[in-house]
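Posting this for the archive.
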Amino acid sequence: MANAVYTKAKEALLGANLDLSGATVKCVMVTSAYTYSAAHQYLSSVGAPSRVATSSGLANKTITDGTFDADDVVFTTPASGSTVIALILFVDTGVEGTSRLICYIDTGTGLPLTTNGGNINIVWNASGILVLS
């Protein structure tokens, strides 16, 4: 698999039903227990056993020239011994069945990674997290 924007997120963006700048966007680390599907729409599609840790809301989000970006993320002391194969960005509504998946990132520096009980710093690409082209 390669990095991808979920199909339903694309529809929501194009239909003006997804506001990344105003929403609470979070990141979840997942193991190989999760299988990406373009048809997945909500966090409830990402089974709890595959989730390693969830970030707090992304800070200082920007949208410029079709590029979504935010400050780097720190996962504070996730349990040790998990192999993280991907990161998933989602809009957190407080309800898994309405928390829209945005994108799946499995290609990048440091992925996959194994948790060791210490903080994990996710440094986004210098050109932004997500680019619509």
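The first strand starts at residue 4 and ends at 5. Residues 68 and 130 are 5 Å apart (CA to CA).
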